[in-house]
Design a protein that fits this description.
43% of the residues lie in helices and 25% in strands. By secondary structure, the protein is an alpha/beta fold. The chain has a single domain (3-148), classed as Flavodoxin domain (Rossmann fold), CATH 3.40.50. α4 links the parallel β5 and β6 (117-118).
Length: 150
């Protein structure tokens, strides 16, 4: 059974709404064969990453980059996962008040180092998530999960 891990930092209701939309998407019709877990970025271990087939990362923009929590996740798993997770497919959603560009750049640098494979356009939301934003989150979850079934 393919395994998908959603590693997220969810400090507010807006981001909780996005996480739930992503999670809903992963359980769309036809995707029941994918085993999906969520994991708070601050407590995710290298073993959690080594034992899954794909990931979705979710973070707020903080001080022009990703959250400290997602940075901690990468600090924790980088070297233990560097060899074994080459080519891992992943998706990404970002939320900020007005600018998530720095977070996206920094995540891209680290995931390029890990040689992970971004399979969907990152979801970038500024301000309160709209219905369209949540639909995009749902589609992200569904698309990444569907990709693991191929
Ligand atoms: C310390 C701190 C730094 C932040 N830095 C940024 C930032 O650089 N860019 C941005 O767009 N939003 C920034 N934000 C806003 C957060 O991204 C936002 O609070 C988070 O996505 C949750 O959204 P909400 O507060 O609207 O619920 C920052 C928030 C905090 C607390």
């Amino acid at each position: 059974m393919p395994r998908l891990l959603i590693v997220h930092h969810t400090p507010s209701p807006a981001m909780d709404t996005m996480l739930r939309a992503v999670l809903d998407g992963t359980s769309a019709d036809g995707l029941s064969a994918v085993h999906v877990q969520t994991s708070a970025a601050l407590s995710t271990t290298a073993t959690d990453v080594l034992t899954v087939d794909g990931l979705i990362l979710g973070t707020p923009a903080n001080l022009g980059s990703m959250s400290g929590a997602l940075k901690h996740f990468f600090d924790t798993i980088y070297y233990p996962c560097l060899v074994e997770t080459v080519g891992r497919p992943f998706g990404l959603y970002l939320h900020g008040t007005n600018d998530v560009d720095g977070a996206l750049v920094d995540i891209t640098k680290i995931t390029t180092g890990l040689r992970w494979r971004l399979t969907q356009e990152p979801i970038r939301v500024s301000g309160p998530p709209t219905t369209d934003d949540l639909e995009s989150c749902w589609e992200l979850g569904a698309a990444v999960a569907a990709g693991l079934m191929r």
